[in-house]
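Students often ask why inverse folding is considered easier than folding. One informal answer: many sequences map to the same fold, so there is more than one right answer. In these notes we will look at a single instance of the problem. The structure comes first.
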């Protein structure tokens, strides 16, 4: 967030769904029967950071975020087997790995890559949400 949002002051991020709007009728969001609240907010674009939800898992799992099969094969030929399970890589490969993670913010590149296989799920983070930015509040019980 520090790199991507000029006004970011270091606060904890608030995670949001950008698109598609989550279908809360489906299971998987909360335990069945749980009481919950959906809060819809309208935030200015310069205060949110969008990223690809599926590609974010590359960061979480220390995977290289490739954009083509050719790039994937090139990376896997040079990286140690199971590198993501065994800690750090040699410095040059570690830099390449972390640089690939910056791609989670390039939504167009990911949408046109071998990575995306269907609908693209976009998440967002913001540092703050003000009360006047809350557009709707809806209570529900998870199914």
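Output (designed amino acids):
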């Amino acid at each position: 967030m520090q790199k991507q949002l000029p006004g970011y002051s270091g606060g904890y991020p608030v995670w949001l769904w950008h698109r598609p709007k989550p279908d809360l009728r489906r299971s998987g969001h909360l335990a069945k029967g749980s009481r919950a609240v959906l809060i819809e907010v309208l935030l200015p674009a310069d205060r949110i950071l969008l990223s690809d939800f599926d590609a974010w898992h590359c960061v979480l799992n220390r995977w290289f975020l490739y954009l083509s099969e050719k790039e994937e094969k090139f990376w896997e030929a040079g990286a140690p087997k199971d590198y993501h399970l065994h800690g750090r890589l040699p410095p040059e490969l570690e830099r390449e790995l972390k640089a690939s993670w910056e791609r989670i913010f390039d939504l167009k590149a990911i949408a046109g890559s071998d990575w995306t296989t269907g609908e693209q799920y976009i998440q967002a983070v913001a540092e703050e949400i003000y009360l006047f930015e809350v557009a709707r509040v809806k209570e529900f019980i998870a199914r």
